[in-house]
Design goal:
Elements: E1 3-7, H1 13-24, E2 27-33, H2 37-50, E3 55-59, H3 65-78, E4 84-87, H4 103-113, H5 115-128, E5 137-142, H6 146-149, H7 156-176, E6 181-188, H8 195-198, H9 204-208, H10 220-231, E7 242-245
Parallel strand pairs: 1-2, 1-4, 2-3, 4-5, 5-6, 6-7
């Protein structure tokens, strides 16, 4: 039976790199996307061509419960029972101080960055847990080093949403540990992805790289490798664990 992985927000950056690497390692892959159908389908085409793996692109707003249900049902029908979930979808808004933020922005950040992780974990557990007749699985949450660094003057709201993901990771890992499900997280930062453009500073990593102990930014592929390790049997005794990928920060 194929190993099946669902990666949310997988049309770009860390999600796309993880989808490609998962296919190379024998997974059938669901590439979830919100808006960019062309990029998601290009990743699927690349996976099929270079890895010869099964892959589908599924549009879904994972902050909406009905969309999450449809997403998982599509995976069930087209790929099979999920064995790995990577919660990766999220947004970043323009850099600003807390005293400049309004309630609408805060609602968008928390609805987009936190709610999807709960909703997708819920559906994954219903398929993986031996409590429901499942055969186990693994979940990796993509958090951020911002959860412990705070992102002062730029994205304290984003950092707070990632702090909540850290708490989810710890609590959920303990909740389902006896049900053959492992839950871990990666905390990347200063990675060369398009998300910095969303915050209004495409060159942010280059601006601050001299303050990073390793003196460089990271790549999506480096994060993907950590994610895939946490999903693998090599990490079979790891749950509630965090891997920081922030160049020493």
């Amino acid at each position: 039976m194929d190993k099946v992985i669902l990666i949310t927000g997988a049309s770009r950056g860390i999600g796309a790199a993880t989808a490609t690497l998962a296919a190379q390692r024998g997974y059938a892959v669901c590439v979830n996307y919100l808006k960019n159908q062309a990029r998601a389908e290009a990743i699927v085409a690349q996976i099929k061509t270079t890895a010869g793996a099964k892959a589908i692109a599924v549009q879904a707003d994972v902050s909406q419960e009905a969309d999450v249900l449809r997403l998982f049902q599509t995976v069930d029908m087209e790929l099979g029972v999920i064995s790995a979930l990577v919660n990766n979808a999220g947004i970043l808004e323009t850099q600003m101080r807390v005293d400049e933020m309004d309630a609408a922005r805060l609602s968008r950040i928390f609805a987009s960055n936190l709610t999807p992780y709960f909703l997708c974990a819920k559906e994954a557990i219903k398929r993986m847990s031996n409590r429901y007749g499942g055969k186990g699985g693994a979940i990796v949450n993509v958090s951020s080093a911002a959860s412990r660094l705070g992102s002062a003057g730029e994205y304290v709201d984003y950092a707070a949403s990632k702090g909540a993901i850290d708490t989810l990771t710890i609590g959920l890992s303990r909740e389902v540990a006896s049900e053959c499900i492992r839950v871990n997280a990666v905390r990347p930062a200063f990675i060369y992805t398009d998300i910095h453009s969303d915050g209004g500073e495409a060159g942010r990593v280059d601006r601050i790289k001299s303050s990073i102990p390793m003196q460089r930014g990271g790549t999506p592929q480096e994060v993907a490798q950590a994610i895939m390790w946490l999903l693998s049997d090599e990490a079979s005794y790891a749950t509630g664990t965090f891997i920081d990928l922030a160049g020493g920060r």
